[in-house]
Write a structure and sequence with these properties.
235 residues; alpha/beta; Rossmann fold; 10 helices; globular; Asp/Glu_race; Aspartate/glutamate racemase family protein
C-alpha cells in the first residue's frame, strides 16, 4: 500500500518517521511506497493553541488531496499534537486517515499499564491524549505543565534538544512515576526522541511514534487493513 505522510510538524519528527518506517519495512523484507507532503509547524502551533480545529483540518485536507494525487492510498499525520483535529480532518479527508492514538490504548492495556504519564504539547497533556485512552488512565506533569509544553514546542521548532530540555523532561517523568503512580512515561510528542533517544532516565519510556510506525508498516506491507486500521502494536 502506498503510504502518505503529512510531515514538517516538526521536521525532526518527519525524519524519524522516515527512518523507522524504512527500517520496519526492511525487517519485513518489503518495499516501501511513500509520499511526504510538507505542513507548516508555525501554523500548527497557532491553530493548536487556539483550538482552531476546522481551520487546521482544512489545511490537512488540502495536503491529503495532494497525497491522493500522488497515488497514496492512506494518510497519516506525523505529530500527536497535530491530532487535535483528527475527527474534523477525517470527515474532510479524501483518503483514509490512520490515527497515531488508536494503537496505544490496547498496547498499554496488554502490557498491564494502569496509568501512564504523558509528555508532549500542552494540549496533549491537558486533554490526556484528547480523551481517547479508554483502557488506561493518564497523568500529566503536576505544577509545571506549561513549562514542559513550552520547552517541547521550542525543541520541535529548533529540531535539537539541549541539556536543559533533557533535565526538565526527565524530572517531569520522574515526578509522574514517583508521585502520580505512572507505570511508564509516554513520549506523546513525536519530537521527544531528540531528548530521550540513547538516554536512560531511570524509568520505563514508551515512544508513541513506534506504535504509529508499526501500524503504517503493516499497511504498507499488506499486513493491515483499511479503513479501520486498528491492528494492535506488538513491539
Amino acid at each position: 500500500m502506498h503510504i502518505g505522510l503529512i510531515g514538517g510538524i516538526g521536521p525532526a519528527a518527519t525524519i524519524v518517521y522516515y527512518q523507522r518506517l524504512t527500517r520496519a519495512m526492511r525487517q519485513r523484507g518489503a518495499r516501501l511506497d511513500l509520499t511526504i507532503v510538507q505542513a507548516d509547524i508555525d501554523d500548527l502551533i497557532r491553530t493548536n493553541l487556539a483550538d482552531l480545529r476546522d481551520e487546521q483540518a482544512r489545511t490537512y485536507a488540502g495536503l491529503i488531496d495532494r497525497l491522493r494525487a500522488a497515488g497514496a492510498e492512506c494518510a497519516a499525520i506525523t505529530s500527536l499534537g497535530g491530532h487535535f483535529c483528527f475527527a474534523e480532518t477525517q470527515a474532510m479527508a479524501s483518503l483514509p486517515l490512520v490515527s497515531a492514538v488508536d494503537p496505544l490504548d490496547a498496547y498499554f492495556a496488554r502490557k498491564g499499564f494502569g496509568t501512564v504519564g504523558l509528555l508532549g504539547t500542552d494540549v496533549v497533556m491537558r486533554t490526556k491524549l484528547y480523551g481517547q485512552l479508554h483502557k488506561t488512565g493518564a497523568v500529566s506533569p503536576d505544577g509545571n505543565l506549561e513549562q514542559v509544553g513550552d520547552a517541547y514546542r521550542d525543541l520541535a521548532l529548533r529540531g535539537t534538544a539541549t541539556a536543559e530540555d533533557r533535565a526538565l523532561f526527565f524530572a517531569a517523568g520522574q515526578e509522574m512515576m514517583e508521585r502520580q503512580g505512572a507505570d511508564a512515561i509516554v513520549l506523546a510528542g513525536t519530537d521527544l526522541n531528540l531528548a530521550f533517544d540513547g538516554q536512560d532516565p531511570g524509568y520505563p519510556v514508551i515512544d508513541a511514534l513506534d506504535a504509529h510506525v508499526a501500524l503504517l508498516a503493516d499497511l504498507a506491507s499488506g499486513e493491515g487493513d483499511l479503513p479501520t486500521a486498528t491492528k494492535e502494536w506488538t513491539r
